[in-house]
Write a structure and sequence with these properties.
Blueprint: E1 8-12, H1 17-28, E2 32-36, H2 40-51, E3 58-59, H3 67-81, E4 86-89, H4 106-133, E5 136-140, H5 153-172, E6 179-184, H6 217-229, E7 234-236, H7 239-250, H8 252-265
Parallel strand pairs: 1-2, 1-4, 2-3, 4-5, 5-6, 6-7
Length: 267
């Protein structure tokens, strides 16, 4: 993974969870980082942690659901470092409600704006610079982008959109030698679960997951690094996710049962 040393890398959603763990891991590898999220306080604490490894990051607070802030993030990055090598679209949000119990339909819009339109906006702003560097776009999708998941319908829809978008973009950018890497984690310990929106559009406040039985953010980040370093096409972090792609073709009812059981058990 020496190929990552010195690379200029933007990580969105860097203030916690997978993004934070990935930022720390990439800092240790000598990457020149841009860490971005909405929460400036958590970004500041991450910047202090990263500075211990020798290369202080460039901090830029932004909301990826706003196109003008995406453009500002890219402009500031290039002004600071001179170029951009890797864009990691990691920022996201989720929901936890049956669709027939959803009373605030704006939840669906909010999730789509952050999870799908945000990466699209930011990638569009970065494309010219990534073409110049023959760089790489990474997007953190989900196994929920590969199949249906009960109580997560809006989230699954947004991740299906993300995978379709970036699979299409990969073909468009092939002649420009810009790699597109799609990451599909299974359940990961993260604050995103505590902030998952319920049917009324309010944060749950506590994680519904059995966190002792799912991947830590650090484990997920360590799985991602080799795929990013080799400019790989896709990573699915769990065996059930990898098997599920094929079982969906031959036994779709079984996949529905597996998804229902996973949500009911919380892992």
């Amino acid at each position: 993974m020496d190929g990552l040393t010195g690379k200029v890398v933007i990580i969105t959603g860097a203030s916690e969870g997978i993004g934070r763990a990935l930022a720390v891991a990439m800092a240790r590898m000598g990457c020149q980082l841009v860490i971005s999220a909405r929460n400036e306080t958590r970004l500041a604490s991450l910047a202090l942690e990263i500075a211990n490894y020798g290369l202080p990051p460039f901090v830029f607070a932004a909301d990826v659901s706003r196109p003008e802030q995406c453009e500002a993030l890219i402009e500031a990055t290039v002004a600071h470092y001179g170029h951009l090598d890797i864009l990691i679209n990691n920022a996201g949000m989720t929901m936890w409600s049956r669709f027939d119990e959803l009373t605030q339909l704006s939840v669906l819009e909010d999730i789509m704006r952050v999870n799908y339109l945000g990466p699209a906006y930011l990638t569009h702003a970065a494309l010219a610079h990534l073409k110049a560097s023959k760089g790489q776009v990474v997007v953190v999708a989900s196994v929920a982008g590969l199949t249906g998941v009960p109580t997560r319908s809006g989230y699954a829809a947004s991740k299906h959109a993300v995978i379709g978008f970036f699979d299409s973009l990969r073909i468009e950018l092939a002649d420009d030698n810009v790699a597109v890497t799609v990451i599909c984690p299974d359940f990961v310990v993260s604050q995103i679960h505590k902030r998952a929106l319920d049917g009324a559009g309010n944060p749950l406040g506590k994680s519904p997951m059995q966190e002792a039985k799912i991947l830590t953010a650090e484990q997920c980040a360590n799985m991602m690094l080799p795929v990013i370093a080799t400019r790989g096409r896709q990573l699915i972090t769990s065996l059930r996710g990898r098997l599920g792609r094929w079982l969906k073709l031959i036994a779709p009812g079984l996949i529905d049962k597996i998804a229902r059981r996973a949500i009911a058990s919380g892992h």
